[in-house]
Hints:
The chain has 226 residues and is mainly beta. It has one helix spanning 2-10; strands at residues 19-20, 26-27, 29-33, 38-41, 51-58, 64-70, 78-84, 87-93, 106-113, 120-132, 137-148, 151-157, 169-172, 187-195, 200-201, 207-208, 214-215.
Amino acid sequence: xxxxxxxxxxxxxxxxxxxxxxxxxxxxxxxxxxxxxxxxxxxxxxxxxxxxxxxxxxxxxxxxxxxxxxxxxxxxxxxxxxxxxxxxxxxxxxxxxxxxxxxxxxxxxxxxxxxxxxxxxxxxxxxxxxxxxxxxxxxxxxxxxxxxxxxxxxxxxxxxxxxxxxxxxxxxxxxxxxxxxxxxxxxxxxxxxxxxxxxxxxxxxxxxxxxxxxxxxxxxxxxxxx
Length: 226
């Protein structure tokens, strides 16, 4: 029975409006009521390589999921971008190749409040090739940056991480299971979701859970939780 329900749910997709974003391209905006999430699957996309996501969000919620990736196959790696106590956080769990040597992950929490119902630009990096113009060399960057009212705040390191194994499924606004007792599904608006290393735009989801996410992008309106 659960399989049939899941199959029916997977048939629903969300439509998107197409406006103009600040770069002159198409803008895809999604509205989350708090009881749902989106899943995106891409062909020819290796989510385990160097990655750079960007998106914009607006919310009043203090604790919620923004983006989540889980391990592929039997790997227990995972990655989450979330809001905790009104501040953006980043979590990466990277197990060793055999699973017995421990793990080498990452964890950052920002200092800025982002649950102000104003648009915040978010950049997420994982082993992204960052060019240091002063030293003229490339080194990996992992973590995130937020832009609030034109001011950029960055929380990253430049450590080398290997054997990261994540599936090609990207979850926006939540996951099928709770990620913690306090971090809930997203309430608010998320727009202009992109992955720059592979040139991907998140436009048509594979799954719109419960068909509850709607196209919604208004500067004057707020999303009320279900």
